[in-house]
Specification:
Elements: H1 5-15, E1 23-29, E2 32-39, E3 45-50, H2 64-69, E4 72-77, H3 95-110, E5 115-120, H4 122-133, E6 138-144, H5 155-161, H6 171-182, H7 190-202, E7 223-228, H8 236-246, E8 251-255, H9 263-266, H10 268-280
Parallel strand pairs: 3-4, 3-5, 5-6, 6-7, 7-8
Antiparallel strand pairs: 1-2, 2-4
């Protein structure tokens, strides 16, 4: 079942706001077709971006240009089975091993043996899990308000998120959830807010693959973890402390004023600068 035209139009409109030309790359794996939105120099160091659940790779409109101009070949992936332009019309993912195997196959098809990774929310859980699965493929790892990596969700957050998983999915339900988590709809980019809402209600998504909390202490790659001060998914200061304990050599910071969903966008200036500086080390 294809994605509805309203969702695709909103996706393309947000992608058009990227400040640099975007190359759409589709690669085929056993699970289906994966869309990668790429920008930056073709010979730049690969930087793989993994979005949060339902956010789509178009969400990086405030970040991709800065990192591409810093010399990276930005490769923003639409997660398979999630709202976006990837098409999950092949084998089912069959749990965490399948998800990691899918990402292996995507990098193989792109001809990327090693990359830097930057990921947000659920995408950060995937990135950290992948770095433990394939350490030779992850040079440096930047995590933006990662969930289920160093601590669990707040019970109150889960109660507010519960309606997202009940029958009767509507864009209004998704907007209500986003506005609550971010402290008001005016704190969200309106184009991205609408894209998320349409994807939640209308996109034929697959079952979300989840798994145990990654054994972060085994991570070998240098790491940066940025937490949103006003994230309602968790207590950011406590989770930042847990991250420092698990990864004593990592750079860990709490970004003031940001919420979970709007961190990459509302705090783009700080996020872009911190991630670029982190990735520049050792180049």
């Amino acid at each position: 079942m294809p994605a509805p035209s309203s969702f695709l139009a909103a996706y393309d409109a947000l992608l058009a706001r990227w400040p640099l030309p975007v190359e759409a790359i589709d690669v085929r794996t056993a699970h289906g077709t994966t869309r990668i939105n790429a920008c930056g120099p073709g010979d730049g160091r690969p930087l793989v971006l993994l979005h949060g659940g339902g956010a789509t790779s178009a969400m990086w409109f405030a970040n991709a240009g800065a990192w591409a101009r810093a010399g990276h070949r930005v490769l923003a992936v639409d997660l398979i089975g999630d709202p976006g332009r990837s098409l999950h019309d092949g084998d089912r993912l069959a749990g965490v091993p399948g998800l990691l195997g899918w990402l292996d196959a995507v990098l193989d098809q792109l001809g990327v043996p090693e990359a830097d990774f930057c990921a947000h929310s659920y995408g950060a859980w995937i990135a950290l899990t992948y770095a433990l699965h394939a350490p030779a493929r992850v040079r440096r790892l930047a995590l933006l308000d990662p969930t289920q990596c160093f601590a669990g969700f707040r019970p109150g957050y889960l109660l507010h998120a519960l309606p997202l998983f009940l029958p009767g999915r509507t864009p209004a339900r998704a907007r209500t959830y986003l506005d609550w988590e971010s402290g008001g709809g005016d704190r969200l980019d309106p184009d991205w807010r609408e894209l998320y809402a349409l994807g939640y209600a209308d996109f034929p998504a697959s079952r979300v693959v989840t798994g145990p909390r990654p054994a972060a202490a085994r991570l070998g790659a240098p790491a940066l973890a940025l937490f949103a001060e006003h994230s309602r998914t968790h207590d950011s200061h406590r989770v930042a402390a847990a991250a420092r304990t698990a990864l004593p050599e990592a750079t860990v910071a709490v970004v003031p004023g940001a919420a979970h969903h709007n961190l990459p966008m509302a705090a783009a200036a700080e996020v872009n600068e911190r991630v670029a500086a982190f990735l520049a080390v050792g180049r």
